[in-house]
Amino acid sequence: MSAPIKQEDFIASIADAFQYISYYHPVDYIQALGEAWQREQSPAAKDAIAQILTNSRMCAEGHRPICQDTGIAVVFLKVGMNVRWDATMSVQDMVNEGVRRAYNDPDNKLRASVLADPAGKRINTRDNTPAVVHYEIVPGDHLEVICAAKGGGSEAKSKFAMLNPSDDLVEWVLKTVPTMGAGWCPPGILGIGIGGTPEKAMLLAKEAIMAPVDIQALKARGPKNRAEELRLELYEKVNALGIGAQGLGGLTTVLDVKVLDYPTHAANLPVAMIPNCAATRHAHFHLDGTGPARLAPPSLADWPAVTWTPDLQSATRVDLDTLTKAQVASWQPGQKLLLNGKMLTGRDAAHKRIADMLARGEKLPVDFTNRVIYYVGPVDPVRDEVVGPAGPTTATRMDKFTRTMLEQTGLIAMVGKAERGPAAIEAIKDNQSAYLMAVGGAAYLVAKAIKSAKVVGFADLGMEAIYEFEVRDMPVTVAVDATGSAVHITGPTEWRIKIGKIPLAKA
Questions:
Q1: So what's the pLDDT on residue 310?
Q2: Where in the chain is the domain with CATH 3.20.130.10?
Q3: Pairing mode, if any, of strands 115-116 and 316-319?
Q4: pLDDT at res. 506
């Protein structure tokens, strides 16, 4: 029988794992992404992948978060039936303490994104606890642990359906993936859970994306069962949708598809789909009572030799401090811009508060006239940083506020991640505005373009406060122009036609 697992060893292992995955991509993911970059023929998608790869290496070198959304902590535990504990805390409390230490580590402070009272006051817990812990009791005398940090953008795109047994599962996936937009930051991994009960299917889908990327090896050896056949079929067909990196249109939407199944009731076919984003983050380790886990750092030689730098030849430099509505109206869909000067920030909570203040006739804490707003909730700075990793958040969450912001505050343009919905596009068109897209999954790279940062409004909202950033050559793409033309519609359509395997639906 193995020695008991000490409380401090378990806590320290959890803390180390969440720090580790904040700045190290799994090597299998990053190498698969490098291969996708080599294959990619869409210039916009290839540029986006290059930013993600460059950001990943920078984070591995600098030990700073891959994404500003450092995720909700998810822990899978397989506990041997003969495991003994030398502990006074519960397993949940030990996991929470490990998460608390990791997220408040002064050398690499991670963003606290977890809110208590989710349907009420939504109060930030300030340390990213509690973690979501899944337990399984298995034979043996050791503990198997998977720690994952799951970003809100990809979690928001989770899908579930109770299909009829005669329904076509592949058809459901191919119909559903385009509705997910690009807020889950492709290229990533799709986890498919099939069978059991509704909650079992969701858990299977979540657990599936913790496995290594190995679709190319599966293609080489061939499938051995129905689940593997589904993996190959879905990998080919989802990529044939042409959604591409960041939803811009291209050859690679998913780097792998994972499938786990479980027996189900004769009347049911539960199917769940959960994506893992470009900030794929998970670590696996075992404890047997001999001490804490030791997670070996990957070699930087494992990263693809891809380095993104601003394209000074084809990109247009923009001075935010003198920007006019006429300039904004002149921008073209897909045009690359390099932003310079001062911009404001704001996301969900700030937009809600602004809308409420305007409704009451109250003065706002900042003047948005002829300003650009960046949808972001940055990581706190450490050492000599002016701001921590500060990549964009999903823009569609601000869609319901867009018309108000454009028509009542003087705002003239917005920066965020992924596509805009019909209401926002209509408001942009009506106001001769523009929406600019920054690459999700390149948060540290973006932060390097931010030269100063200060809170100018709603300081009590923490990472959701209004900041003023001064930026230098911050890369963005015109995603919706003043005419309402949207690259997240035109790009995937173009590449779906080019790939030619899945016809467009008839209007």
A1: 86
A2: 316-491
A3: unpaired
A4: 63
List Cβ neighbours of 8 (8 Å cut-off, separation of 6 or more).
Answer: 292
* Cα(462)–Cα(341) distance, integer angstroms: 23
pTM: 0.96
Res 505: pLDDT:
72
CATH architecture of 316-491: Alpha-Beta Barrel (3.20)
The token pair at 434 is 């523009």
**Beta-strand relationship, 372-374 and 413-416:** parallel
pLDDT for residue 29: 97
What is the Cα–Cα distance from 14 to 73, expressed in whole angstroms?
10
The pLDDT tens digits for 344-379 are 999 999 999 999 999 999 999 999 999 999 999 999
- How many C-beta neighbours within 10 Å does residue 185 have? 32
CATH of 152-278, one of 3.40.50, 3.30.1330, 3.30.1120, 1.10.10: 3.30.1330
State the DSSP code for 437: E
Q: Which amino acid is at 214?
A: D
Question: What length does the chain have?
Answer: 507
Residue 151: helix, strand or coil by DSSP? coil
pLDDT of 507 > 60? The answer is no
Distance CA 418, CA 404 (A): 21
